[in-house]
Specification:
Distance between the termini: 23 Å
CATH topology of the largest domain: OB fold (Dihydrolipoamide Acetyltransferase, E2P)
Number of strands: 10
Radius of gyration: 23 Å
Strand order of the largest sheet: 1-2-3-5-4
Strand content: 35-45%
Number of domains: 2
Shape: elongated
Length: about 180
């Protein structure tokens, strides 16, 4: 089974060290010093045209972007989505923001088996109840219901899998949908 990568947002406030260029004229990374640590942050393609290359080392910057795990060593890839110069020095900090990015919210899904065995055992009613309850809670846009092929265990249908937890439920009844949503969302 594949593991999901948790993408979160970060905020760095520190001093510019230098820019790392690609092909001579394109900014690829910005090096920033926060307290006694140096970070290399990749600049997103949209942001590259907006970067002021005349900034001198020591300029105070605030960088907000996405942080994604990179390998098994506990390292992270940092990609800037916002880069601001600060006129007055701020307190240097490196923060992981609790808000999730669009990539991670896409992982919030409920898989419902739509094969005939599960569907006939009440899968259709469970799916309708899920849609109704998510809409009632205002989660209709945040949680996607995805109809899938066989999730195995058809004799124990209807089968439901909640992502990103990868929690599997069998023999789900429409009246249990409320409890299922309370547990996960």
């Amino acid at each position: 089974m594949s593991s999901l990568t948790a993408v979160s947002q970060f905020r760095l406030v520190g001093q510019l060290e230098s820019f790392v260029m690609k092909e001579g004229d394109k900014v690829k990374y910005v090096r920033i010093k926060v307290i006694d640590r140096e970070y290399w942050i990749k600049i997103s393609k949209k942001l590259r045209q907006q970067v002021d290359l005349s900034m001198s080392p020591g300029t105070w910057l605030e960088i907000i972007g996405n942080r994604e795990p990179d390998g098994k060593l506990g390292l992270f890839k940092l990609e800037a989505t916002t880069l601001k110069t600060l006129s007055t020095p701020d307190i240097p900090c490196a923060t992981v923001l609790s808000g999730k990015t669009d990539k991670s919210t896409n992982a919030r899904r409920i898989l419902v088996c739509q094969k005939s065995d599960c569907w006939e055992r009440g899968g259709k009613r469970v799916c309708q109840q899920l849609e109704k309850k998510l809409s009632d809670r205002g989660l209709g846009d945040l949680v996607e219901i995805q109809l899938t092929g066989c999730l195995k265990q058809c004799k124990k249908g209807p089968n439901v899998v909640v992502l990103p937890d990868k929690t599997r439920y069998s023999q789900v009844k429409p009246y249990q949908v409320e409890e299922l949503l309370d547990k996960h969302f």
